[in-house]
Design a protein that fits this description.
- InterPro entries: AB_hydrolase_fold.
- The protein is mainly α and 81 residues long.
- The chain contains five helices and two strands, in the order αβαααβα.
- It has a two-stranded antiparallel ribbon.
């Protein structure tokens, strides 16, 4: 498989810098929180009534959380169909 050839076993691994950046820019006191909200809306769809902005630091502090390349390989046929 490709992950054995490339010797890469993790897809989008957790990066402490990005976690800290998300936590800092998306917290309740940040003037940039609206940018974090809009980024999530762009990815997940717009629904302001169901958006709990107080959870943004938690969500963005864990994004990306990474996945095993075997998980991606396993889910690919479902995405393709």
């Amino acid at each position: 498989a490709l992950y054995n050839i490339l010797n890469k076993y993790e897809f989008l691994p957790r990066n402490e810098f990005l976690a800290q950046l998300g936590d800092t820019l998306c917290n309740d006191n940040s003037t940039f929180q609206i940018l974090c909200t809009n980024a999530l809306f762009a990815i997940c769809g717009f629904n302001e009534k169901q958006m709990n902005s107080s959870l943004l630091p938690i969500i963005m502090g864990h994004t990306p959380s990474g996945a095993s390349t075997k998980q991606i390989y396993h889910c690919a046929p479902g995405v393709k169909s």
